[in-house]
Amino acid sequence: MVRALVLRVLRALGTAWLIASAVFLLSRSLPGGGPHLFTDERAGTFGQQTTAEAQYQRRLELQTPLFYFRLLPGRWYGTPNQYHTWLGQLSRGQLGQSYRDDVAVTEHLAQALRLTLPLTVSALCVAAGLGLLLAQCAARRPRWYRWLLSAAYFLDSLPLFVIGMVLLLLLANPDFLSLLPAYGLPADYSAAGALSWSAVPYFVLPVLALTLSSLPALLLPLMGALREQWQQPYMVTARAKGVSPRQAGWRHALPNAAPVFITRLADLAPGVVAGAVVIEVVFALPGMGRLLAEAAAARDVPVLVGGVLLIAAVRLLAWLLADVANALLDPRLL
Amino acid sequence: MLRFAVIWGLLSGILGLTACSPSSSPHSASAPTVRVCWPRDPESLNPVTLPNAYAVQANNLLYQSLLTVDGPTRRHVPWLAADLPAVEHRDSLTFLHYRLHPQATWDNGTPILAQDVVFTLKVLNCPGLPNESLRGLVSFIRDVQTDAADPRRFTLVCRGYAPEYRDNSGEFPILPAYLVDPQARLRSVPLQQLTQADSSVASVAAVQTFQQEFNQAARWRDPRTLRGSGPYQLAGWQAGQQVTFVRKPRWWADGLKPATPALTANPGRIEFHVVPNPATALLALRRGELDVYPNMPGPDFARLKTSDSSSFRFYSPASYRVVVLEMNVQQPALRDARTRQALALLVDYDRLLRATQYGQGQRTTGLISPREKWVYHDSLPLRPYAPAEAATLLQRAGWQRGPDGWRRAGQPLTLRLFYSASDRTYATVALLFQQSARQIGLPVTLHPTEAGQLSELRRNGEFDLSLRTLYGNPFAYDLRPLLHTGSIGSGGANRSRFGNAASDRLLETIYATEDSVSKARLLRRLQTLLYQEVPFTPLFFEPNRLAVSRRFAHVRPSGLEPGYDLPSFTLAPAQP
To answer: Which residues in chain A are contacts of B492 at CB distance < 8 A?
Structure first.
């Protein structure tokens, strides 16, 4: 068991490094991949633009070669290259500085996570809890099952943007119900750096939107798995022995259906750190999703690569934890 | 019953908390709070970086330059300077004589002197700082001569001469040396050493130390360092969320009489709320969580105008942003001017204005705004929508229409139209143009493209047609970055790749001409040339759509960015 775990951890680390390297190299080598001081909308002084652009590239240390060598035409550059520098920083636990404001990438990520984690973790917890409850109810009630199946497929077919806008128009609309704040956070939220009760109303709509969008992904497979378990002979035996339907559902059916649920949870886990860019845009929340989308648009490669590395690490960790949990539930799965 | 009570309790709690939330900021009668909607974060408030228009707007509350632009009158006016500079030409040099305002002081009470201007120019020319953009702007300033008798007088010594030196010389923020360089590292480094393109200056120990100190990112988020001679100080910056400024209790211009609009600062608190989604911003505005919504999308503006005119004032002055359909004149199919003229006739301009600007916006014959009557070439006719005439022009250019489209020497005429994928206006314009072209059998393929990739394609000339917005102003008529052959590729923003020796000479003559009559004549000649050669066809000047809560007066709307004068805002007298 331990050997298998160590092997999986090593494999996960190797995969994370490969993903980050691919993102780093691809994002800089593709046409238009690097940042530019001047854009089509922002021209420099006539005759000065090339010089200014060169100074800008030099300041960001982008004038050095990208990798150790070039293939066509072949040329060896050696260690003074951008990838080598980045790897060196990474080995010291640094992800570099943002091209846009020179702030450390780790600081950008930490600041965005301070908002994203409460948002996504609470949405995932609510969705998981609700998914478990509804699946248990639907597993032994055919009418509930049919109704929930339709509702879940309907929710699943709605784009997240639509869910967010509908909630906004229903519950933060002066023409309908103006119950909750339409956007943002209280002004003291980031300054405090911790959760405060004044922020709770601001989270209601985004959390609700994320919950509604992730609920079908958890509910549908669990509902199916639980229904299958309820048709197994061991459940009939349990019921014949006098076990109540609730006990049979939670103590007998759920452990056997749980691997499906755990695997789906592991699939959703990266979203916990990746944020939900759509919801962050709709509700004007400066979280991880917006940070990464804006970094990609501005070609802020250090922030982008740092974010991707973090998300990849969480995804791999989630898979690892799901494997362990499933193995504990059913040792045959290891 | 218990469940109901819990749910009700939670709901009451939420509603109670919402009621306590700061959605309705307090207003003081003399110093109101103004909440402005921004679609994005300023990214950096470092006064030498200024990466976007929002950073510039925020910086103008913190720092002052020698001159500023008065939006409604479209003129440069003195700000930190006492008057506009006196201009003197001697040999190959230009001397701009300035005097700083006699009452101008920093927040620590020390007067703002010529030495502060010298220090600022040192910072703007110092290598290794994120000042590349501003350094280009002041590159014509070679030295500063201070006056021993009057520490507020100084003369900027400039290379060569251009009429725009007067305005450009006053557009950089003056920085307080006592905050930016408290150790006086740059005092021993002469300005002339920094302005010379000498790479050895980067190895000077004082310069290196200053670089390290200046480039600490945390300094430029700290309200104690981000402090200039402007009327406001930074109160808070939650990145991607909100930037807040509060009025300084004592500002050097408070006692001046009469107070000019440039030296007025009425709001006690200014909050910029970052709301990227227009639908959310509109809801927030209607709920009273925002007071000012600039650059509103056309449909939202039209809807709000009909539904909420009792709560808001609406302004839509024509801006200096012109949307153009650009043509790559170096593509073989588009080398003939008649082909480009034909394409310009395939644009249904009036329909475009209705579809994208809801009837607002202003048509034009060229890059110059029709508002600038003294230089606008009004003798040129507005180009009509004339598909039949376009087909005739294509035939004159040698194209033959067959069952499979237009061909010349066996080569088909097919065009690729590129535009930014995130812009709804461009998408509408592209679709309408594609429909018009199809009417005469001309296939146009649409290529909505990510902005960064689009920039690269345009820079390399890998497009036939593209939609683009050009940003102008009523002061500078230096069109060389847009139209000079030296600006093709990475040297500038000439994406249509238009130009020849004659047009370059004309652009340089326009740049160097001071006399307004001659300048107007030359600019008309340029407009005629562009009208005939059609490196792009201008579609319309966009309006600056602005909605402001009726609680405020003295908005002073203008066509210049940001389109309103925040420091002038006052509370409107209560309606009876």
So the answer is: 43-44, 46, 49
Report the distance separating Cα B342 and Cα B323, nearest Å.
19
Single-letter residue type at B241: Q
CA B315/CA A282 separation, integer angstroms: 26
B484 vs A32: CB contact, 8 Å cut-off? no
CB B450 within 8 A of CB A296: no
Retrieve residue B246's tokens. Answer: 């509060």
Q: Which residue of B has its CA nearest to A284?
A: B275
Give the residue-averaged pLDDT of B565-575: 89
Task: Please tell me the number of Cα atoms within 13 Å of B494 on its side-chain side.
Answer: 28
CA–CA dist B389, B387 (Å, integer): 5
> For residues A46 and B137, what is the distance between their CA atoms, to the nearest angstrom?
9
Interchain contact, A101 vs B46, CB within 8 Å: yes
Using left for φ > 0, alpha for ψ between -120 and 50, and beta otherwise, residue B470 falls in beta
- Cβ <8 Å between A187 and B236: yes
Closest CA to B80 of B55, B62, B54, B56: B62
Residue B200 tokens, joined = 């050895």
Residues of chain A with Cβ-Cβ distance to B213 below 8 Å are none
Distances (CA, A) of A169 to A19, B80, B283: 40, 47, 8
Q: Name the region of B534 (left: φ>0; alpha: ψ -120 to 50; beta: rest).
A: left
Residue extents of the structural domains in chain B = 62-216, 319-543
Query: What angle is formed at CA B393 by the lines to CA B392 and CA B394, rounded to 5 degrees?
Result: 90
Q: Which amino acid is at A72?
A: L
Provide the residue type at A227 as one letter.
Answer: R
Token pair 């494999």 is found at A11
3-state secondary structure of A274: helix
Q: What does the buried/exposed string (b/e) look like for A15-53 if buried means 16 or more CB atoms within 10 Å of the residue's CB? A: ebeebbbebbbebbeeebbbbbbbbbbebbbbbbbebbb
**DSSP result, A92-130:** TT---B-TTT--BHHHHHHHHHHHHHHHHHHHHHHHHHH
Tokens encoding A116: 């994203």
* Each residue's pLDDT tens digit, B376-417: 999 999 999 999 999 999 999 999 999 889 999 989 999 999
Question: B203 CB contacts (<8 Å, ≥6 apart)?
Answer: none
Give the relative orientation of helices A200-230 and A254-268 as an angle to the nearest 10 degrees: 140
**In degrees rounded to 5, what are phi and psi of residue B513?**
-85, 130
Q: Which amino acid is at B195?
A: T
A200-230 and A105-139 helices, crossing angle to 10° = 40
What pLDDT, in 10s, does the model give residues B461-478?
Answer: 999 999 999 998 888 889
Average per-residue pLDDT for chain A: 87
DSSP-assigned letter for residue B42: -
B319-543 has which CATH code?
3.10.105.10
> What residues in A contact B287, CB-CB < 8 Å?
172, 174, 178, 182
- The CATH code that applies to domain B62-216 is 3.90.76.10
Cβ contact A202–B471 (<8 Å): no
B491 CA: distance to closest CA in chain A (Å): 5
Q: What are phi and psi of B536, to 5 degrees?
A: -155, 155
The Cα B118–Cα B155 span in angstroms is 10
Q: Residue A249: helix, strand or coil by DSSP?
A: helix
Taking the Cβ of residue B53 and every Cβ of chain A, the question of whether any pair is shorter than 8 Å is answered with: no
Among A274, A302, A286, residue whose Cα is nearest residue A35: A302
The average pLDDT across B17-25 equals 41
Which residue ranges of chain A lie beneath pLDDT 70?
1, 187-195, 333-334
Judged against a pLDDT cut of 80, whether residue B295 lies above it is answered with: yes
